[in-house]
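Suppose you are handed a protein chain with no further information: no name, no annotation, nothing but its sequence. What can you learn? This example shows the usual starting point.
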Amino acid sequence: MMLFWLVIAVMLLGALAFVVWPLLKPSKMHDPNRASTNIAIYQEQLKDLQLAVNHGALSNEQYQINCEELQHSLLLDTAQKTHGWLEQLPSSYRWFTLIMLGGILPCLAMFAYWQWGNSQGLTKAVILQQQAIAAEKLRAELSTPDQVIAKLKQHLVQNPTSAQGWYLLGRLYMSVQQFPAATAAFAQAQQLQPNNPTILFQYAQALYFKQNSLVGKPTDLLKRLLKLDPHNDLALNLLAVAAYQQHDYQTALNYWEQLLPKYAPDSSDGQALLKAIASAQAALTKSATQKAVINSSHVLKIQ
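A reasonable first move is to predict its three-dimensional structure. Written in structure tokens, the prediction is:
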């Protein structure tokens, strides 16, 4: 940021120097004595030419040519220099103009930049740079996850309505496998932002690791997430797993079949998905067979 403004200052000084330099240069005024001397010399040379013609030393044609040359030289020597408007100003006015330009030009430049330049982009870039420096400094100070957790908890004491803070705390607890604490942190974040898909998924995942099951609250959270984001692959897969654990094989198949077009059959994820679908189909067939056997046995007993 300092370098940017330094470059701007140098460019502005250069522009000022270009504009005010003519004001500082001394005027080259016309010397009347020199003009009179040149005219006198011209008249003497003209007399000499006339004498040469009278004595036959110079022809009339040569006389005319020499006269034209003398007139041309006289015009060059006696022509008064045309001064620009700056040089024609009195000294006091020139200094006044200098002060006005030196004050107004920088103000106009700053106004133009503020009005049409990308001042907001510059401000945002500075803020991001400062945040990156602060984050790097914090990372250097906090070398272990426990230190980061302690620091973040202190921050949340002062900012208890920060959903992002609670979410980050939950992620930190998940990284050290403290699942009950992670669940509590995600619950706080979800309360502050009930319809945040990312928070909903992490909350459901933390509950799953805490209770080793997706039944109940985790399934409710994932279904809520799926309403907000119907194409969320992670939510679809976990809901399929939850349905499979509850022996609802048809529902599990429905979820997994939604994922099938998204993965190549020869990829590792595609192979795992095909195995899960095959397992659900086998379990569904077995369950249907068992129900048929049970129903037939009831029919025999009734007869």
